Amino acid sequence: MESKLKNKLRRLYRMIKFRMKNAPLDFEEDTLPWIDRSDADIDAFVKKFKTPKDFPYDLGKLLRDWRDKGYVILENAIPAEWIDGLWQEVEEVVENNEKYSVKSLVYQFNDGKETPVKDVPKEKLRGIGSRLLEYHSSSIAAKKVMTHRHLATFLEAVFNEKTTVFQSLIFKYGSQQGTHQDYPWVRSKIASHLAAAWIPLEDVSPDSGPLVYYPGSHRLPKFNFGTGILFSEQDSFYTPDDFTNYLNKTCAENGIKGTVLLLKKGDVLFWHGALAHGGSRINNPALTRKSFVCHYSTLRSYPKHRFEEGEKSIAQLHNGVTIYANPTNLAEEDIMTAGKDWK
Fold it and tell me: Which key words tag this protein in UniProt (predicted)?
């Protein structure tokens, strides 16, 4: 009992001392991807980069937008039949969930704990707050969508390194998530080596709880949780709500206003791992916002699957992007084959 009291007092002392001198932090300069460095020369890079002939976008403009705004939009990047095929497959998994061990998070059911879909009632999987995790591990269609050649080309240019898929989420309704940045939670060896993509699986309505993002917020000083820029549930002095309040306040102080994003099916939004964003309120609960969210890193930063206990993960290569097999569910790797014939 005395030991526990001493630990609490010691933690309280550390918290008071930290808050008296707390200051925002930033990524270490020598870890930054080339485009985030102060000496980045985009024009010179584009001249040397081997852009595929069928890449339908202005790479120089995309890279300047990424550097200055922290996001880019690729319009009509993915064929509609791929998008429809992926969602039809997801619906089949939910309808026949007893067959699958794909992990899910269902708020108001399992308190944010990862649970195999076979252990979740169908009505919960279909409701607001339900997410499928790492769905791409089981789905060839998801693998192909998240590494489509247009997406792979952009990722290679942003990092100028070999890239890898880090994580994925699929959900039917808007997240309604508070303002946040991804890097404190989606972690690899190098925090600055993180990019994300939001792929709408249907046209987005303004009343469906659309995504809100804050252009240029990736350049703001990073929040200090007391454990550095990464959140630790056990050791951080501040909470995710404190983080949200910091971002909202700091964006307002810097004149950065939230922008509501209304994309069309087949478009892709890429955002920087430090771009502030969130989900707005769902005004019409009857409206869905079917979404596929993907995170990416570099091979140097993420050399094996985060659940892999050995030295090396089983991996596939799709358009130059590495995708690791999930070692906790190898039996269901690529069990959904809807996209096997897509070219």
Answer: Dioxygenase, Oxidoreductase
